[in-house]
Amino acid sequence: MNLTVYLAGQIHDNWRSEVKEKAKNLPLHFVGPMENHDRSDNIGEEILGEQPNSIFKDDAASKINNLRTQVLMEKSDVVIALFGDKYKQWNSAADAASAVALNKPLIVVRPKELHHPLKELSEKAQVTVENIDQAIQALSYIFEE
Amino acid sequence: MNLTVYLAGQIHDNWRSEVKEKAKNLPLHFVGPMENHDRSDNIGEEILGEQPNSIFKDDAASKINNLRTQVLMEKSDVVIALFGDKYKQWNSAADAASAVALNKPLIVVRPKELHHPLKELSEKAQVTVENIDQAIQALSYIFEE
Amino acid sequence: MNLTVYLAGQIHDNWRSEVKEKAKNLPLHFVGPMENHDRSDNIGEEILGEQPNSIFKDDAASKINNLRTQVLMEKSDVVIALFGDKYKQWNSAADAASAVALNKPLIVVRPKELHHPLKELSEKAQVTVENIDQAIQALSYIFEE
Amino acid sequence: MNLTVYLAGQIHDNWRSEVKEKAKNLPLHFVGPMENHDRSDNIGEEILGEQPNSIFKDDAASKINNLRTQVLMEKSDVVIALFGDKYKQWNSAADAASAVALNKPLIVVRPKELHHPLKELSEKAQVTVENIDQAIQALSYIFEE
Amino acid sequence: MNLTVYLAGQIHDNWRSEVKEKAKNLPLHFVGPMENHDRSDNIGEEILGEQPNSIFKDDAASKINNLRTQVLMEKSDVVIALFGDKYKQWNSAADAASAVALNKPLIVVRPKELHHPLKELSEKAQVTVENIDQAIQALSYIFEE
Amino acid sequence: MNLTVYLAGQIHDNWRSEVKEKAKNLPLHFVGPMENHDRSDNIGEEILGEQPNSIFKDDAASKINNLRTQVLMEKSDVVIALFGDKYKQWNSAADAASAVALNKPLIVVRPKELHHPLKELSEKAQVTVENIDQAIQALSYIFEE
Amino acid sequence: MNLTVYLAGQIHDNWRSEVKEKAKNLPLHFVGPMENHDRSDNIGEEILGEQPNSIFKDDAASKINNLRTQVLMEKSDVVIALFGDKYKQWNSAADAASAVALNKPLIVVRPKELHHPLKELSEKAQVTVENIDQAIQALSYIFEE
Amino acid sequence: MNLTVYLAGQIHDNWRSEVKEKAKNLPLHFVGPMENHDRSDNIGEEILGEQPNSIFKDDAASKINNLRTQVLMEKSDVVIALFGDKYKQWNSAADAASAVALNKPLIVVRPKELHHPLKELSEKAQVTVENIDQAIQALSYIFEE
């Protein structure tokens, strides 16, 4: 049995590579958003052409990014959402809540000090952990006999 | 025909009173989270007793807050989520995304300058506006003949 | 038992008034889109302000129109969609198909000569009739003992 | 990961071949309606025998065409609906709206000048583009790392 | 608390009157198909005009009858389906199975000697009884304190 | 693309073999109920032991038969239900209606003279045909280019 | 806004009366299983007649009890399940898990010392408390402004 | 056709090995909870670190156990739940009821003398048997021709 895992969350460092490396012995297939931040911001204009202003540029980009997210999250069995101390990350919170509403089990990864602002979302998650190792352990446990 | 509207978002100022006042001639019933911030933070310990530390205190509070949210959002026909420039508001983003996943039409209210970090969530919303007057206009339009 | 009926379709003549008048003795409540065509086209700019060009103006208007449709169709027990020989009426076709997908019984009203282009949609409808009197008869039959 | 894409829309030119050719390096499998227009119109009588008149002939054909559509759209991960300036294309609009209601992400392809009559349907789509190249770019983006 | 009960099954005798009379002290509202058999058979031609032959006449009638059934069953909390020893009653079996698939609790009423041909449907029902008094007792039990 | 087809209906002759033979060049996998009639009737007592009387024997058998049907119909993309002029076939009608309620496209096969008693079920089906060849043609059409 | 609360759990003492008394100032309507234990055990034979042995007697009773539970839980907005230290209470656990699967928020009430055997079910609940007062406080919080 | 079977129930003896051995000639893939009881109890602290007391330790463990259950039950076509005469087994009852609510056919295995406390759950199951051999026979019957 193979599982597909959607890696929601910020795209400002290479945490997804760390997840993939640490989980390389598990039968997992990882998907997620475009991690190239500039490309993610520009994809709307790249496809739809120049937009009237930065708000419309953002609208255009988010249409394409949400197309990707909707297709890939639908294919997933589990969602991991990682929160850090930088950026607003409302998109991550939205993806995490969508996962819960779609009955996809959600693992939230966040540093301890972010607990308070994440508390209602953590409570909706199946489990909240503080680092990637713990998330991998939880995924690994699904396969153990 | 009466509609029930869930007012998601921050509880740090009295924006909900403004909504209710401005919509007082529409057949709308408003519900939402506990707006007394201290009570919202303490409700877990108030009901479940003292918790081992602040993380467990938060867990306890969020269980009761999410009970309220789940019951009231289920009763709602439309969800308004207001974002401001203070606080992390991850809970607001999560409630907004839950509304979309539950097929509740979502109106996002946010100042223009917050467009970029909210862009994917705005794109999922039925409509994004910049102030409460616009949100009320949109609700009013549902009833106009 | 009262039923709510959504009247989808063109807004270029007063066919909805005819439906309401002819059904006035049945326990039906009718809802539907904004019938003032100019207002329907302008509602986006009215609420969201001037848009960069006519496509963005249309986008803005359709967000508000779809908010109204989503709320009111969700409240409905039956959907009537009327097609005429003018205009493209793609929006009517889309509303009609949405009704079917939401398990709302659909009554299509269309002149006989439009059968061919509507054939797949007619086949999805619960019943297709040629005039408003027939649609009212079908609704009336639900209540007869 | 392979995706299945349903190509809704008119069957009067060979736009589907263009899509397949341009996407040949992506892991996509394309499905769609019968593209032989005469066969699509006659399939009802071919299977069910001669019908009393052209309306019943159309009814019979649409039963078989809708069987095909229902089976293949259910198997699809994404739907592309292309609109042109000829024909009524109500069936295309209906298929597009069904896709949205089934939570299949929808890409609408239409020439710019058709924006107004398609505006509510475009707003329901995940993204609206003007040509096939843009639709392929959007699909390609789902797979990019 | 009031409950709505759909009375599926044959329309060849007045068993529904017996149900209503015997349940008159319970807070129940009963709905069901057209009980005037001729009208049920002719309703298609009455609304849609003369049809080419008896099969098309039946098709037309069943469209209107199924419109009624779909609307009223959707409004129901419980479904009672009564089977007798006359007629094929495939329509009753279909309505009963639809109720189960829609998560409406189903009470089957049938004489003991019909158990064998109804066995799989009885097994899907919440309860199978032999007469109307037993069905009323089961409904009454829902309200007892 | 392969499709799985559930063959509902009577188990008193070998019509399923005819379907399989005639469809042998299509990418179809067929499933269905136990076709050995005695075994189908006795499977309850075979597994659960002797039952108090024939009604309980039937109950026991139908539990096992419905287990099989539920598992296999869930795996199916299309359902064919064949009706003949013998036996009550209420189980077939129930399986056919379950398929419709589960959004599985339904093909009804029945001799012309059975149209009247099957009329509401036929109307719920995607298509109704008179013989197996026609059903195979309809399935074949799904794959044609 | 009124809420309906299903009171699942043992029927061996009068805890439901305590709930109703303590919540009498809240806009709540309470429903639940038959609390007369003998009647609950005998209702199958009362309606369906004498059964062959005690297992069939139990089967008959549980059909009627589950009819009641299914109807009333479907009408409920919140479910409270109370566990005590006597009896197996598997039925209570099943009702509680059904509530969660139906997206009804669940409040588990149990003495502290029962935490271990209830741990997975508690984790699925929205909140777990130790006594009725706490459950009422949680319900009250939904209505507080 | 292969089926995946979730083996819910107690983890205090090796009944799952018996199931797997006896079903080794059937095209079945078995999944289920962690069977190492100590590991199941300790997995929360193993991943999340030491907890304040035994209740929080249990909470932590059940989060991880429920993650596993949710992922694997979602992948399953059938659920077997085995009850014995030891332990409270509320978790087993909850898993069994979840399966029913998710439309997964449920086979309950229990010794005859446990019928009374399991009666409502047995009634929700597709079939209740007394031993593993019977459960395997029922599964085998799904594949027989």
UniProtKB/TrEMBL annotation, chains A, B, C, D, E, F, G, H:
Superkingdom: Bacteria
Name of one Pfam family that matches: Nuc_deoxyri_tr3
Stated name of the protein: YtoQ family protein
Organism: Salipaludibacillus keqinensis
